[in-house]
Amino acid sequence: MINASPREVGTRLAGEARAVGAVWQREMITFGRERLRLVISLLQPLLILVSLGIGLGAVVPDGETGIGYVTFLFPGVLVMAIQAPAFAAGASILWDREFGFLREMLVAPVRRESLLLGKVLAGTATATCHGAVLLVFAGAAEVPYDPVLLASFVAVLALAAFAMTSLGALLAVSLPNPQTFQAVTGLLLGPLVFLSGAFFPLSGLPSWLDALTALNPLTYAVDAARHVLAARLLGEAPAGLFEGLEVWGSRVPVSVELAVLTGFAVLCLVVAARRFSRPDQ
Amino acid sequence: MRQAATPESPPRVPAIRAEGLVKTFPGVEAVCGLDLLVHPGEIFGLLGPNGAGKSTTIAMLCALTRPTAGGLWVAGHDVRTRPAAVRRSIGVVFQKTTLDDKLTVEENLRIHAVLYGVPRRRARERVTAMLALTDLADRRRSLVGTLSGGMKRRLEIARGLLHEPRVLFLDEPTVGLDPHSRAEVWHHVHRMRRESDATVLLTTHHLAEADHCDRLAILDHGRVVALGSPEELRARIGRDSVRVRTEAPERDALTLADGLGVRPTVVDGQVVVQAEDGAAMLPRIVTALEGAVTSVTVSRPSLDDVFLHYTGRSVADQGTAATEPLVTGDDS
Prior knowledge:
The complex is a heterodimer.
Chain A: H1 6-33, H2 35-56, H3 69-99, H4 101-106, H5 112-132, H6 147-174, H7 178-194, H8 210-215, H9 217-234, E1 246-247, E2 250-251, H10 254-276
Antiparallel strand pairs in A: 1-2
Helix pairs in contact in A: 1-5, 2-3, 3-5, 3-6, 3-7, 3-9, 5-6, 5-10, 6-9, 6-10, 9-10
Chain B: E1 16-25, E2 28-38, E3 43-47, H1 54-61, E4 69-74, E5 77-78, H2 83-88, E6 90-93, H3 105-115, H4 120-133, H5 149-162, E7 167-171, H6 179-195, E8 199-204, H7 207-210, E9 215-220, E10 223-228, H8 230-237, E11 240-246, H9 249-260, E12 265-267, E13 270-275, H10 278-288, E14 293-299, H11 303-311
Parallel strand pairs in B: 3-8, 3-9, 6-7, 7-8
Antiparallel strand pairs in B: 1-2, 1-4, 4-5, 9-10, 11-13, 11-14, 12-13
Helix pairs in contact in B: 3-4, 3-5, 4-5, 5-6, 8-11
């Protein structure tokens, strides 16, 4: 606004930070109260890990590395597991509108951007948790319980969760109601997961799908997580299933992948915040 | 009286001032030239049928929707240029609940306090005080989803007052409540008014509730058609009516016209006599009809009559039942 002194700006920023905190607090209370949901949402990734990992693993040859398909699959399943909760965080914006709580937030003396940021940060945290609990089962996929490796997984998951929650928020502020949101994300979920390389190396796909896989943020998350694992298991010369992602013929370094995820998240968040804070009429 | 529009002189600043307020949506003029002046500390009612512009006015007062034209100030702050200041000075209870069912009573209040930047210690005091005010202290740790409709509405009032607003908006505060809960909500509104100096602006299309207001504005098609205290509004149109049920209403109407010099009408088989003081007129009517009377009722002009007078329609005719059941039937 006009002629604000530095002190006023400081007070205002503190107020906005509190607003982000208020939204975060609310989401965390609810998350803590719905532990059953966390347990239930583990079932699908575990089912995939077991059925694909063991079933398909029996027919996929280990190759010269001696590392099985189930190990290859593990990082993919981790990334897959954050999908649904990340989108659910986006949907919660629409449910808040449906059940009225959104109005309580909108009429508060804070910026709408702060409210959205609170939502996205809380969603990122809960989605990351959904992926991170699966690390308990690392042993079953012959992934070592190495603290550095596990921490690296969590870091990649957090960025992927940030990207997906921001996308969810963008969809939420662009769509009219939770039902439409569900339909749209239902449509998106399949392609996002299947074209991310979570279940098989993307090198096997026909080249006309290259553009889609390159645009899919999950591609970078899966490859980064897998790269971290390969570096631990195989050192610096990954081979076979772990050969790594090539986008239009060139290898993508992990740092670039993480930057892509962050960039995607920030872009979605900024566009979503702009749409969300447009005044009514 | 000149109204100051600056926050520097709080005692003289009207709680709400609207001047030529207009809000148009594509194809609809929801509010067209609304003028209002609400004094600090009063309970002010906006009475009107659905579509009269009440909710649009509330949305503009909350700085949720921008006026198309005209001026609007809340506690001295212009809603166009100082929306944050406006929002800090108001508490709102919307028509549709805005509580989080999955949180406890206390958590709902605590999060509200954080959103409004109430310092932690002060927030603790206020939560306790507001729960006591609305008789919800023993439900502090209950999930909101387990509360009755009346309790939820009271909790929303408690929450609306938590940050000590200058003005509290109640948008159809008792819609959907049973008569008992409705009475309780009013009890708490009056109690709150005694214990704080907040101004209350409420909307209603429920005439019985209009009597709780110090002053009323009757809204129709987005403008004020009448303004005054409920008593003033009644007095402006009128007189009491005495309704007499008899065996032969037409003949008895003539008898009364001859004997008492009144001008009775026959409505629904009853003789209706208008009088300044219906109760005093009653014995004279009974005497004149020499015992032919089967029953008599005396009624004061209702706000429904007032509404009818100013808008040409009865509030009951507005077809509100389709969207909001449970709102008719007890404005006796």
